[in-house]
Amino acid sequence: MPGPAAQTGATSGAPRVLTRRGTELFMLVFAAVIVTFALLLVEVAQEQTVTRDLFLYGAAFLVLFGAAHFAVRRWAPYADPLILPLVALINGIGLVILHRLDLAEASGGPFTGKQILFTTVGVVLFVLVLKFVQDHRTLAQYGYTCGFVGLALLALPGLLPSSISEANGAKLWISIGGMSIQPGEFAKILLLIFFASFLVSKRELFTTAGKRFLGIDWPRARDMMPVLVAWMLSIGIVVLEKDLGTSLLFFGIVLVMLYIATERAVWVFLGLSMFALGCIVAFNLFDHVQVRVNTWLDPLGPEVDGKDPGFQLRTGLMGMAKGGIEGSGLGKGLPQKTPWASSDFIISAVGEELGLIGLMALFLVYLLLMMRGLRSALAVRDSFGKLFAGGLSFTLALQLFVVAGGVTGLIPMTGLTAPFMAAGGSSMLANYVLIALLLRVSDAARRPQAPAKPKPKQAPIAEAHTELVERPR
Fold first, then answer.
1. pTM (2 decimals)?
2. CA 116, CA 118: separation in Å to the nearest integer?
3. Where are the transmembrane segments (predicted)?
4. C-alpha to C-alpha distance for 464 and 460, rounded to whole angstroms
5. Residue 453 included in any domain
6. Residue partners of 157: CB distance under 8 A and separation at least 6
7. Does 346 reside within a domain?
């Protein structure tokens, strides 16, 4: 029979779980209502006939994320109740923008049907990860395997013929029979597992072992070498494949995880110094880097080899300027004039039609998602979970910063896409796996600990000695 404390914890924990999951379901319904209403506004603005199919889209959206909700209720009942609704809302806003581009007959469409298909497959992967990854700590046991497979996935497109791996000058894809996949999107999760597991196992050696040089305690080379090799290989591979965005993403992820593991700001300083040096070297070695930097510095610059590299950035900036503070309204702008508005520049489409207010609201939703992830990282009890959840959350944060910075002209364009919004199957699938793993860590962080078993009472030493002495022979 469990003790009174155990019974009290069990009975008090159940209502809290039901409250969390009830909040999650309510927020999912609210997100579905917002998405349906936004689709209705787009149809009205484009003078389309509003049919019941529009409301079926909203119902299907709710059913899809309702299935995700019940998966969380079944396999991660203590997980954060806001993470999934925030993801659903961001995903829904992306569907609205893609549907608006379809109505404008933007080149490359239709986008909506494909995005719904990718979202469905992503939710299926989300459910499977929650079901089969019962404890995030088991992933640490396969750290080196994940690192090897992640590097192999990164290098695979570069080893294949350009006819099935190259798109827009970058060798990132594997295209067979009309289907394409970007292995690097899944490699980032596998490499995150490797870096987190390695840094946890070598954490003490990073701060104590080694020699002191220039006032810094350096770890031993044999302890530092595996993570440095994996780090440099991952960055080098994607640089050679002309994927600057992913290389920047890997660089930032490892740098932040080093800081979290050691709590030493010197690693951030050294990393940023290496980044500055790498930028100078890349600018002088690679022509495509020079083109992107020159376009960033002067979007109105001259043509290069008969092409106008600044056209995309100019049209995106002009669209956001046209939207102004309040925006032109859903369905009333011209986002289709911007090349790749469905992927690289979907943020500019939001800024044009929803204005600065809508864009800041979208960034706030992203910020809440990242904060909830970081909160789970702080609350989880094991070191691997802290590093892993922190890395997952920072991946979303850095990816959004790079995308928004490139669209607004703050930094050069890198080719990354906005998580859960932009058209693209590989990014969508990988990000849903990421969210499932983040919810698994969140469930472990919020799950109440089992009460400790009371230790058996032992007789005091004096009493035991007296009993021993007085025992008859």
1. 0.88
2. 5
3. 25-42, 54-72, 79-99, 111-130, 142-160, 172-200, 221-238, 244-261, 266-286, 345-369, 390-411, 417-439
4. 6
5. no
6. 165, 171, 172, 173, 174, 182, 183, 184, 241
7. yes
